[in-house]
Inverse folding.
């Protein structure tokens, strides 16, 4: 099975794309459909070198905007920006309940369990735990659910999903961290809606914004475009 990736912007150095929910960025099993492979096929069909460099990730059940490098130089530049906090990433999340206060910062220490592919909040000083920080702002409420905008200050495994669940507000559709999820499949109510970085070759600041498509976000379709402002 193949699919055609949705390309938002492309030049000789980078590809900005929308990843659909349910498709892994990089598959663990040989032969499994993944987004990296789809982009390589896309380049090959254009008779280009099928090089794609993954510089950041989204969880398989999460949708949203991503940037990929088309060569080693661009990959190094983008990776450096991520390490030095030069790349901005913002998300919309649909959570259970209402955050109090409606705007703030969550700081936790996360420990990853490779066997279960989960992370959990642990006490500071726990061996191998990593500090996780995010900012959030509540945008709307609807029948005991909220739409929040999140800015990641660190990039940890399942960070948003784990931190929001630990705060008592797990994400809609998140079977790993939300005990209220039913048996029916539903994409996690999380979308990477905005990304900003400096172009690897020109140094120009690039900003791209998308609207979420997932089922969970239909509850909040009246969100206005001006809500896509950053959380600086």
């Amino acid at each position: 099975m193949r699919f055609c990736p949705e390309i938002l912007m492309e030049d000789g150095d980078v590809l900005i794309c929308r990843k659909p929910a349910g498709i892994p960025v990089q598959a663990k099993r040989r032969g499994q459909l993944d987004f990296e492979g789809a982009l390589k096929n896309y380049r090959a069909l254009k008779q280009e070198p099928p090089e794609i460099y993954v510089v950041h990730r989204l969880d398989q059940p999460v949708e949203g905007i991503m940037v990929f490098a088309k060569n080693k130089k661009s990959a190094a530049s983008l990776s450096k920006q991520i390490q030095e906090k030069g790349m901005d990433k913002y998300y919309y999340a649909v959570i259970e309940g209402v955050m109090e206060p409606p705007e703030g910062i969550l700081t936790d220490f996360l420990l990853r369990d490779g066997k279960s592919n989960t992370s959990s909040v642990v006490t500071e000083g726990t061996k191998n735990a990593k500090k996780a920080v995010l900012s959030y702002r509540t945008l709307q409420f609807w029948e005991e659910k909220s739409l929040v905008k999140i800015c990641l200050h660190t990039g940890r495994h399942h960070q948003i999903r784990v931190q929001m669940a630990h705060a008592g507000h797990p994400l809609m559709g998140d079977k790993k961290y939300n005990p209220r999820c039913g048996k029916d499949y539903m994409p996690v109510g999380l979308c990477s809606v905005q990304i900003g970085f400096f172009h690897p070759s020109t140094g120009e600041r690039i900003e791209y914004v998308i609207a979420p498509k997932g089922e969970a976000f239909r509850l909040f379709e009246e969100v206005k475009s001006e809500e896509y402002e950053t959380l600086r």
User: Anything to note?
Assistant: Residues 6-220 form a domain with the Pseudouridine synthase fold (CATH 3.30.2350.10). The first helix runs from residue 35 to 45. The first strand starts at residue 6 and ends at 10. DSSP finds three helices and eleven strands in the chain.
